[in-house]
Amino acid sequence: MDGETLEPKQIVSTRGMTVDKQEYHPEPRVAAIIASHEWPEFIVNVKETGKVMLVNYQDIKNLTITTIDAAPFLHDGGWDSTHRYFMTAANNSNKVAVIDSKERKLTALVDVGKTPHPGRGANFVHPQYGPVWATSHLGDGGVSVIGTDPVKHPQYAWKQVTSLNGQGGGSLFIKTHPNSRNL
């Protein structure tokens, strides 16, 4: 988009086959657009197809698009603490897809509770598991905590390391702050 006029510079179709049943979807929605910290590209969640598109905008007239199969009904998500890995919820699949923005590939699909809905999620350092990222769920009262440090804590990386009891029957978003002991 042009920053001043908001006119589209390029339009990209999201039509395609779903990752699970290989059924054609004529009008899948875009659920999230995130700017990469590694490359001149956007990370685009295509909701119904379960595909993540890496749209390199370095040459706007000749876009380069890499498509990564993840899981159906991708929604929103956020970065791990290093800003390398994009953690995105596939809420109807009860999974979190981990996208490595540096290597430009799917790192893991993590099984979590019912209908994960993180907003951006929450990063913090767990005393046992090291750096983690957490998401609340709409479909149950749990909070899934996923290890995010493949270097110093490889045994916990890209796994749900614990599940916390949240308040009530489910939550829309989760946040934290470095100066807070609360989630």
Automatic annotation (TrEMBL):
Q: Which residues form the signal peptide?
A: none
- What domain of life does the native source organism fall in? Bacteria
Q: Do you know which InterPro entries this protein is assigned to?
A: Cyt_cd1_C_sf, Haem_d1_sf
Query: Which one Pfam family would you cite for this protein?
Result: Cytochrom_D1
The record's listing under Gene3D superfamilies reads: C-terminal (heme d1) domain of cytochrome cd1-nitrite reductase
Classification via SUPFAM superfamilies: C-terminal (heme d1) domain of cytochrome cd1-nitrite reductase
What name has this protein been given in UniProt? Nitrite reductase
Q: Which organism is it from?
A: Pseudomonas sp. BA1.6
